[in-house]
Fold this protein.
Amino acid sequence: MSSPTQMASLAILVSLVCAALASDAAAVRVELTRIHADPSVTASQFVRDALRRDMHRHNARQLAASSDGTVSAPTQIAPTAGEYLMTLAIGTPPQSYQAIADTGSDLIWTQCAPCSSQCFQQPTPLYNPSSSTTFGVLPCNSSLSRCAAALAGAAPPPGCVCMYNQTYGSGWTYVFEGSETFTFGSSTPANQARVPGIAFGCSNASGGFNTSSASGLVGLGRGSLSLVSQLGVPKFSYCLTPYQDTNSTSTLLLGPSASLNDTGVSSTPFVASPSSAPMSTYYYLNLTGISLGTTALSIPPNALSLKADGTGGFIIDSGTTITLLGNTAYQQVRAAVVSLVTLATTDGSAATGLDLCFELPSSTSSPPAMPSMTLHFDGADMVLPAESYMMSDSGLWCLAMQNQTDGGLSILGNYQQQNMHILYDVGQETLSFAPAKCSTL
């Protein structure tokens, strides 16, 4: 994610600092809220900005790869960012903040007071660790500390604080590691769950982020620092409401209540992640083919597979907006769409950032009917209706996918996940999904 949208780790600079600085999760359900889309932002502007952040995120991932109980939380779609935000609270007394829910990373962080002039504007007051009775500095030798490896088993110096700079595609944040009580749920105490001892990053300086909706990020990936790992939950699920729906909420559940009771549930195993970061935190899937309607596209079965050297592969990511496909697969999808549409093609890159767009007769014209697109995974098919792979705005109708170099990382973005109930069973190492009307769940 950049501008907190493109937050794939590009580099981490870790340092040990000596300074004095002022449980287990039960099964819980909490209420969810959602940010309404900004009516002043057109769909084309929205997708163009989201694509720019997606590409920053993707470029950062490539550079990083080449170098060396039940809890639910509010999720909301950011007005212009193409991200879903979860609302939670931190500290005692609890202070509410909104953070991007990101299955493509593992760090939890928020901006903290005092903050230098290099902080992005956020919708809530800065969390102040000195005002919380439950804040603590995370010990440098903690298993959750990024400084533990630097200590190499030695005792940390007195007052040790682990500080590091985490750089993303279009931004960076400088944090020190803390431990705090996080609160999940509604404003009603009876419906809240307070979880102590969550390791997180407290940011006193950030740069490059252009947002007014989020105050940080919550990583839901496979790494030890993610919220999923720290809560020790065996599974989590979400159902993302459509981009056009500005009134409904999306739901994220972590723990025993995360289950699929929908009809038409399909399941596919996760592919084992590489051991090196940042790839180790991603949820890889085996995408073996793509069909448009009843036509299977001529894509080699291993075109999107994870290679032995850790390159390639296909992941599912809630923090990326538009699906990214290796060029061989993308060109097949593009050609198939073109073959079915009689409208004139146009270069929509300036307006939307998308490669393939068609000109509608007028800005109020409805797009033509299109068949569903099927993503064929190992043992499961994900069927996408036309509105989940095409988008229209201001007289343009575009394929909401982009290409990338063959052999690079391909990504299932959240635009293609809308109105799909998705379950990550990290205990059973499977992803399950079913079409759903997410606004009713």
In short: The longest helix spans residues 43-66. The mean pLDDT is 81.
